């Protein structure tokens, strides 16, 4: 029994890590439908304190506007992935983000360093994101004036 539980935990951790990587890859490819497919229908994305949260039902169309109108290119890199499994079908993670953005309007390239705090649920289609919170540790020429902080003491 212990071996089966350990194997399931390792498999779940890898599936969640793959989900985080897929989010970055699909965002950078300008694939809003692909990004939205990684979330549950009731999911919430909170990118910053100054704009409304993005909700599951509107996710693809809302993300498409930014990908289409704001970014000419982007590159998101995650590291320091820490996953906490909460029972068999719920989990949360914290991972660090290093992101570069090229803007369509010719503004200087924007840089963001921070982290994602995510929550997950196992579904019939595998693990999906139920909540994504972006916290900023620092930016250079980034398009958002304010970010959620990382809670640095």
From TrEMBL:
Keywords: Isomerase. Residues 8-131 form the SnoaL-like domain. Pfam families: SnoaL_4. It comes from the Bacteria. InterPro entries: NTF2-like_dom_sf, SnoaL-like. One of its GO terms (molecular function) is isomerase activity. The keyword Flavoprotein does not apply. This is Ketosteroid isomerase-like protein. It comes from Chromatocurvus halotolerans.
